[in-house]
């Protein structure tokens, strides 16, 4: 199975080239909708999706470079949970990307090169170890401006690029990732019930903003969809963190309404809207 990323018009699409059109429509394709929404401010579109090309998702663990592959999959019978964190809060000047897959990751040079192909600079990189494994952290900025990434489309492209490389160099990770169902060599070993997995919480974070917590089943394009859903009801997304933990997505957004924290009725409207959207996902047929 070979999955390809392509751009048609202004939408970035992932398709399974070996599947029939009907299968691609149902499970084997995904398109990022066009968007100019940004975190914290309005700016011109940052990413030209017509130029964006992610590498194919064809696994090639047998000839993967040692620096990318790291530890061998044979080191442990239990496949660790892949974790990809996009952090907009901890560094005011850069977007922080953190990738963990037990102790199996190397220096991720191929991932850094893939990020450069998205028009990004890796301005700082470090590694630390703890009981959960080896954590690779990168501080990234836009190459054209030196600023942190604010465009949700580009943030989602970063997330999918990292997952792309995980599936390519560590095909065993596909059983632990939502994208593994369509693009990996092994589908997830368990299915996530969206109704059970979805949790939403909103609380005040001072007088000027609120904290929105979301936990739900992961799927490609989720970051863009969430930001669009929130801004469609006139709530601003200022910053936040988007974590991919195996089959789940865990999100923390700082949100506000007219530069103030959300009042209780608006919190309820936002929570109900998100809950309805996440539990009943739909895909525009015209995307395929």
UniProtKB/TrEMBL annotation:
Any coiled-coil regions, as ranges: none
Keyword Repeat in record: yes
Record keywords, A-Z: Repeat
Source organism superkingdom: Eukaryota
PROSITE patterns: ACT
Domain ACT positions: 96-176
Molecular function per GO: amino acid binding
Keyword Cell inner membrane attached: no
InterPro entries, per the entry: ACR1-12, ACT_dom
GO cellular component: chloroplast stroma; chloroplast thylakoid membrane
Record function comment: Binds amino acids.
Protein name: ACT domain-containing protein ACR
Taxonomic source organism: Raphanus sativus
Lineage: Eukaryota, Viridiplantae, Streptophyta, Embryophyta, Tracheophyta
């Amino acid at each position: 199975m070979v999955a390809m990323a392509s751009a048609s018009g202004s939408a970035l699409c992932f398709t399974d080239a070996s599947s029939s059109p009907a299968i691609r429509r149902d499970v084997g394709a995904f398109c990022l909708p066009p968007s100019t929404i940004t975190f914290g401010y309005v700016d011109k579109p940052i990413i030209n999706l017509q130029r964006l090309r992610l590498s194919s998702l064809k696994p090639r663990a047998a000839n993967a470079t040692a620096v990318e592959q790291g530890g061998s999959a044979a080191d442990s019978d239990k496949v660790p949970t892949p974790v990809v964190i996009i952090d907009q809060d901890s560094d005011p000047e850069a977007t922080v990307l953190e990738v963990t897959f037990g102790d199996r990751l190397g220096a991720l040079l191929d991932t850094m090169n893939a990020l450069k192909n998205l028009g990004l600079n890796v301005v700082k990189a470090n590694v630390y170890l703890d009981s959960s494994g080896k954590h690779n952290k990168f501080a990234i900025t836009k190459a054209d401006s030196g600023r942190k990434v604010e465009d949700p489309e580009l943030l989602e492209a970063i997330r999918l690029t990292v997952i792309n490389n995980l599936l390519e160099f560590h095909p065993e990770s596909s059983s632990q990732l939502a994208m593994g169902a369509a693009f990996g060599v092994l589908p997830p070993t368990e299915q996530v019930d969206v109704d059970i997995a979805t949790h939403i919480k909103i609380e005040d974070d001072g007088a000027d903003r609120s904290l929105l917590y979301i936990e739900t089943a992961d799927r490609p394009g989720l970051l863009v969809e969430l930001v669009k859903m929130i801004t469609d009801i006139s709530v601003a997304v200022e910053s936040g963190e988007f974590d991919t933990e195996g089959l789940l997505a865990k999100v923390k957004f700082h949100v506000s309404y007219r530069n103030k924290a959300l009042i209780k009725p608006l919190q309820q409207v936002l929570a109900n809207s998100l809950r309805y959207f996440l539990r009943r996902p739909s895909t525009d047929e015209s995307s395929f």
